[in-house]
Design a protein that fits this description.
Blueprint (H helix, E strand, L loop, with lengths): L3 E3 L37 E3 H12 L8 E11 L2 E10 L13 H12 L5 H5 L1 E4 H4 L8 H7 L7 H4 L3 E2 L3 E6 L8 H5 L5 H19 L11 E3 L1 H4 L5 H8 L2 H6 L1 E7 L8 H13 L5 E4 L9 H9 L14 H11 L3 H24 L3 H17 L3 H7 L4 H19 L9 H38 L3
Helix pairs in contact: 5-8, 12-14, 15-16, 15-19, 16-17, 17-19, 18-19
């Protein structure tokens, strides 16, 4: 959720005072208790406005030599924090505030003080290994991962989960909040945080299978996750990272979107989508929603895409829409053009996701895949609709299974019950990777060109 901030700028002619100093004037004689003066009304700024102001301020300095200290008000309403920025401590030596920050944040601040402008991304970019933020249902560390995904409130130790890196395998885009009707649709025994943890484990396993690596290597796949890869205990560093999200996207090989039926209602999610569609080709975008899509949720997904519009996105402050509008206006021919690209891409990516179950039976294809073909037609994407109908999931699955059976014959003459686990894993990898490869090749050849053509029409070049 986007945070809102209440900001007060105080002018001190003699420079910024030290925090421990008592700033009240000294008088001799008995102290006369004066009634407190009414506090001036502080202007409210949205998080995006604050971000823009801070970025502009930071551009005035060639090196990060100061640290901004903020005092958070205790009260919050509507889930929005209010922060009073009342003092600025000018710290030329990072060691003066070392006790205030985590070791990783201190290290980053020191690196930035020596970095050139062209090196800032190299300093700030980090990745978290899948084994730190994802877990299968049977993994003993699943409760720890679920706790990580329970809310967006990052701690210093969350940043310690990540390490410096040049690139990442996956950029994870998601909504921290579950859909309002999550328990009604999914049930009370499937916590949103736990499902997200397990879905990312599936993503990591898909990556190693595509590389023809051992399935056990999945924990080494690298993710960019905001909570783990952005320092949460230093406002300066946090704002720098937020301002470089697009640069970070370009450093990731693929984009994984944990796509719930409410994803396109979240302003922040749509902002990330706007960035992604400009910089990444469709074949590098993956909607991870296998555990989300069911008989109950499928109609919600169809409506989510059918009725998507910028006006329907939800945010805490209406002023937060300004940053999204500015992004759309700067990168796209028009707002309706952006909405067209989002709908076309969402239909195509959802159809591809449903192919993984459509290959199991004709009934599943009709139930989960065909509605997306029909929606493409309803929305006027006739060429896309025709392309989607050229897929052959049952045939691809049969071919993958036959290849796996041939390998099994060559590998072992024993029964499946006595076959060693590594051999079973290898056979599963062959079947899954071959089937996935068939879907990817079809999508790249038949569907991606149509989406790229729509992008050329809608994105400013």
């Amino acid at each position: 959720a986007a945070a809102a901030w209440t900001v007060t700028w105080n002018n001190h002619p003699g420079g910024a005072p030290r925090i421990e100093e008592d700033l009240r004037p000294r008088t001799s004689g008995p102290t006369v208790q004066q009634p407190p003066a009414p506090a001036p009304a502080a202007p409210q700024m949205s998080f995006f406005q604050l971000h823009g102001s801070m970025v502009e301020l930071l551009r005035m300095f060639s090196k990060p030599t100061g640290i901004f200290c903020c005092a958070c008000d205790d009260d919050a309403r509507d889930g929005v924090e209010h922060v009073s920025v009342s003092r600025v401590v000018n710290v030329m030596d990072i060691s003066e505030v070392r006790p205030m920050l985590s070791h990783a944040a201190v290290s980053k601040a020191e690196q930035l003080s020596r970095a050139k402008d062209s090196e800032i991304d190299d300093v700030l970019f980090r990745t978290a290994p899948a084994g730190k933020v994802a877990a299968a249902w049977s993994d003993s560390w699943l409760p720890t991962c679920s706790e990580f995904w329970r809310n967006a409130e990052g701690l210093a130790e969350d940043y310690e989960l990540s390490v410096d890196a040049g690139r990442a395998d996956i950029f994870v885009s998601h909504s921290w909040s579950a859909p309002e009707n999550w328990e009604v649709v999914m049930g009370k025994d499937r916590p949103y945080a736990t499902v997200k943890s397990t879905m990312l484990a599936v993503v990591a396993k898909d990556v190693v299978l595509a590389r023809n690596e051992a399935l056990s290597n999945w924990r080494e796949v690298t993710f960019w996750v905001d909570k783990a890869c952005i320092p949460q205990d230093d406002l300066h560093l946090k704002l720098l990272c937020i301002g470089r999200i697009e640069n970070f996207i370009n450093r990731c090989d693929r984009i994984c979107i944990l796509f719930t039926w409410a994803y396109l209602e979240r302003l922040w999610c749509v902002y990330e989508w706007a960035c992604v569609l400009v910089h990444k080709e469709p074949k590098h975008l993956w909607l991870q929603n296998e555990m989300f899509v069911s008989d109950k949720s499928l109609p919600l997904y169809l409506d989510c895409v059918r009725y998507f519009s910028l006006k329907r996105t939800k945010c805490f402050l209406e002023t937060d829409r300004e940053i999204l509008a500015k992004k759309i206006d700067s990168c796209y021919e028009s707002r309706p053009a952006f909405e067209k690209l989002v709908k076309a891409t969402a239909v195509a990516l959802m159809a591809r996701s449903m192919l993984f179950r459509a290959g199991r039976s004709a009934r599943l294809r009709k139930q989960f895949f065909e509605p997306w073909v029909e929606l493409a037609t309803d929305l006027g994407f006739t060429e896309l609709s025709a392309a989607l109908q050229t897929c052959k999931p049952a045939e691809w699955r049969e071919t993958a299974s036959a290849e796996s059976a041939q390998t099994a014959t060559r590998t072992s003459t024993r029964s499946d019950q006595s076959m060693p686990l590594p051999t079973k894993e290898k056979l599963l990898s062959i079947t899954t990777s071959t089937y996935h490869s068939s879907i990817e090749s079809w999508f790249d050849e038949a569907v991606s060109p149509i989406l790229l053509a729509i992008r050329r029409e809608t994105v400013k070049m």
